[in-house]
Specification:
alpha+beta; 10-stranded mixed sheet; 14 helices; 58% helix
């Protein structure tokens, strides 16, 4: 029997199955719909999480003293020696942290003050929206200038273009006016989304302002993407030789943490997809039962076909193809429903929701595979029926 004839007979049996074929295809459609919707939502959530995490502005590496109780401290001279003496380090910036407050008009709140220098762009991955960042001259002097976030600018002034405006900051117990010289894209998007207004604003000040009473840094941020262990060894050599530090210098790979978070988000989406794939297993059982029922109802037709010379393998392939067609139809219906539902959600919510093309192909492939697996037992049963017994009432 030709392959085209097998498909024609399989399609005819699928149509004659009526409600049974629809119910079997429906179970497959539900499974594919669940996988597609979860995939679309998971892809969107993963993208949002990755963007939020990267909006914190961390990249490269940071080094710090493991045992600060020794009395030793990192200095700008150490950062300069690292930048000049360690291959692969494009920039090294000393950082000073201090808690403070901001106030302007009737609005005020807590703030985390970052003392940074002119290498802020290279080490913190900032996006400048208005104005400029600190110059080398400003970074080493106690000048009262500030770079604020987009969120703070909109909250206080109602706009982003606020360079030249002033903001009152309480730094180390003293309240003064600071000129705003730049506005950058929010660096705490993830924390703000999790904790809302409870997250302090991040305000950047010249390093020389926060470190004017001491020449020490809390940490040194590095624009570096090489091996962490090799970098740590080299940093400890420089620290021991240049500063005579008794404590060891530790290194954290900030970019590596972001990559790990991205991998965790991807893994979570895959787990949810596996859970949704259980519905396809249920569909496999339903299709198997439906095909066994079809084989039982067609005993006489199978017996007649065998009596006139029909081969067992033709019967086997007819039932196997029929099972695959049912699953393929169900998968197509499920994908159509998923695309329509996700498209409607995209229009209503304005979110970038899409069913991944790769996931659609995987769903089709899994559905056909489920159809093949579900049709093997019924196909073997139908092919091995005795023609005499099948026509005997």
């Amino acid at each position: 029997m030709r392959l085209a004839d097998r498909f024609r007979l399989s399609w005819g049996q699928t149509r004659r199955g009526g409600v049974r074929s629809l119910l079997c295809a429906g179970t497959v459609a539900v499974g594919v719909l669940a996988m597609s919707v979860i995939g679309a939502v998971g892809q969107y959530a993963r993208g949002e999480m990755t963007e939020a995490v990267r909006s914190v502005g961390l990249r490269g590496m940071t080094c710090f003293l493991v045992e600060q109780q020794t009395g030793d401290a990192l200095t700008p001279a150490f950062a300069e020696a690292v930048e000049q003496g360690v291959p692969g380090v494009d920039a090294a910036m000393p950082v000073k942290y201090l808690a403070g407050r901001y106030q302007t008009g009737h609005k005020s709140g807590n703030a985390v003050l970052f003392g940074v220098d002119e290498r802020m762009r290279e080490t913190l991955d900032v996006t400048l929206l208005d104005g400029r960042l600190f110059t080398a001259g400003e970074s080493t002097q106690p000048v009262r200038r500030a770079v604020i976030s987009e969120r703070l600018a909109r909250s206080v002034f109602g706009r982003v273009a606020v360079c030249g405006q002033s903001i009152r900051l309480t730094v180390d117990g003293a309240e003064n006016r600071y000129e705003i010289v730049g506005v950058i894209r929010d660096q705490a998007g993830l924390l703000t989304g999790l904790a809302g207004s409870g997250v302090p604003e991040i305000i950047y000040l010249p390093y020389g302002l926060l470190a004017q009473r001491s020449d020490t840094a809390d940490q040194v941020l590095l624009a570096y993407s090489g091996d962490t262990k090799q970098l740590e060894q080299r940093l400890n050599q420089i620290a021991a030789g240049l500063l005579g530090l008794r404590g060891s210098v530790g290194v954290q790979n900030l970019s590596g943490y972001l990559d790990e978070i991205d991998q965790m988000a991807t893994g979570a989406v895959r787990i949810f997809l596996l859970v949704a794939a259980v519905s396809l297993v249920v569909a496999l059982v339903a299709v198997t039962c439906g095909m066994l029922s079809a084989a039982h109802e067609m005993r006489e037709e199978i017996g007649i076909y065998r009596a006139v010379g029909g081969r067992r393998r033709d019967i086997f392939w007819i039932f196997l193809i029929q099972s695959g067609l049912i699953c393929l139809i169900g998968a197509a219906a499920g994908l159509a429903a998923a695309w329509g539902g996700v498209g409607l959600a995209r229009l209503v919510t304005g979110r970038a929701l899409f069913v991944p093309a790769g996931l659609s192909l995987v769903c089709l492939g899994l559905s056909v595979l489920c159809g093949a697996l579900a049709g093997i037992a019924p196909a073997l049963r139908a092919a091995n029926l005795d023609p005499v017994q099948t026509m005997h009432r």
